[in-house]
Structure formats: C-alpha cells, structure tokens
Design brief:
single chain, about 250 residues, alpha/beta, Rossmann fold, about 30% helix
C-alpha cells in the first residue's frame, strides 16, 4: 500500500455505491502505515469486515484467501489491495473472491508491478494491466488502471462488477477520473525529488521515469462484449490519459 492507492480507494468510495457487506482481504494494518492502509475509514456507513492470516489492527476474521471461511454469494464488495503478490496460488484466491461475491457484487483489487521485494511473509508475483484483464474476464464490467508510465507502472488496480453488473457509463467513468485527480497523489520528500532530478540529469529520464511519473495514471473501461483487452480507437478518445502530476 501507498498514499497513491489510498487516494484511488477514496476515489472509488466517492464514485460508486458499493453493496454491503464489505470484506477487506489482507486487512492487517502494518505498523507505521496506518495513515494510508486504513481503508475501512473510507466506508464509514458500510458493514465492514477485515480478514487476514494474522491477528492485529484492522483484522476481524482470520483466514486465507486461497480458502476463504465465507459462504457462497454472501459478500457485496471485496477489497484486496496489494495482496495477491503475496499469495502463492493467487489464481485460487481470485476464484474464491468470485465464489463469495453475491450477484451484482464488486471487486476492488490492486497489485504492484514495479516494486522492490517486500516479504509479508513472502513476495511471489507482479501483475500487469493485461493480467488483470485476463483474471477478471468473468466480470462483465470493469475499470482497469495503473500508476506511472505504461511500460513500467508502479501499481495496477481494477474495480470489477459481477453479473448482473453495474453499467459503467462514460459519465460514471469521467466521474471516477475526476475523483482520481483530487485524491490519487504520491508525495515525495524534497531530498528524494532532488535525487530523482539529479539522476535524470546524469543518466537520462528513462531509468527514473517510473518515479518521475508516479502521479500520472490511466484508466480504461472493459466489458465482456469486447474481444480485446485494449480499448478501441474510439474508446481512447472517450477515455483520455489523465494525471495529477506536479511539474518537475
């Protein structure tokens, strides 16, 4: 988790009327990260439960995403932010989420792509937007987005809706993008900014693009009727590249 993803979660909470009950998987709040890992606070009017493999702050249920201790079709919304890179058989976890979601339920998920190894307790995988498009094929309506440059994103996220799904209209997508502009921002210290700029001067922009562009993002709407996981030319005009970047 980072501050940018907390902003994405805030944009989701401001844009979509997500159904109850809400289940956050990987809900343990790592000491020192509480200011941005506390997703529960963004949904104060929802019935909310946190699940993790260990006891601690934010955890109501002990369990494993590969074998959720939850009944079929019993959860309205599942949230799993930066979880599946730590799951050995992540595909089992995606199947379990689909099983417990009731019809019309929502799945909000994120994973890193360009990130150092971070073992909580193990770090197995990285995910691209294409991977999310494939893993979420069962969901007829979804938005997939990423943070940073297209060829080396920092984070990838998606909000997907199970059949019978909420229709993500162009107006709803634009509302989500406007919320992202307000909330999705990753700060950096002045010293770190100086290091990035110095590195850019000495080595060129490419090695540091992921960090220089950390406040850029892009989102696309995908539906089950599309045969490709990339938006068409006409869709690209409706779904513009958007960002909230500060000048270098």
């Amino acid at each position: 988790m980072n501050q940018f993803l907390h902003g994405v979660a805030q944009a989701v909470s401001q844009t979509f009327s997500l159904p109850d009950t809400m289940l956050e998987i990987g809900a343990y709040q790592v000491p020192g990260q509480e200011s941005y890992s506390n997703i529960r606070s963004l949904f104060p009017h929802h019935e909310y439960q946190g699940l993790d493999m260990r006891k601690g702050k934010g955890v109501d249920i002990i369990g494993n995403v590969e074998d959720l201790p939850i009944e079929d079709d019993s959860v309205g919304t599942v949230i799993a932010l930066n979880l599946f890179e730590h799951v050995r058989c992540f595909w089992k976890g995606f199947d379990e989420v689909y099983r417990v979601l009731r019809p019309g339920g929502a799945f909000f998920v994120s994973c890193p792509f360009f990130l150092h190894r971070h073992s909580y307790p193990n770090d197995y995988w990285r995910f691209t937007p294409d991977a999310f498009a494939y893993l979420l094929e069962k969901y007829p309506q979804k938005i997939i987005g990423y943070q940073g440059p297209a060829n080396k994103p920092l984070q990838v996220w998606a909000i997907a809706f199970k059949e019978p799904a909420l229709i993500i209209t162009p107006e709803l997508h634009r509302k989500f993008q406007e919320a992202l502009k307000l909330f999705a921002y990753q700060p950096a210290s002045k010293l770190r900014e100086f290091r990035y700029l110095l590195g850019r001067l000495l080595c060129g922009r490419s090695p540091f693009a992921t960090f220089l562009d950390r406040n850029k993002w892009e989102t696309s709407v995908l539906s089950s009727t599309e045969k490709s996981n990339k938006p068409s030319a006409s869709a690209q005009k409706e779904l513009p590249y958007a960002n909230n970047i500060q000048p270098d």
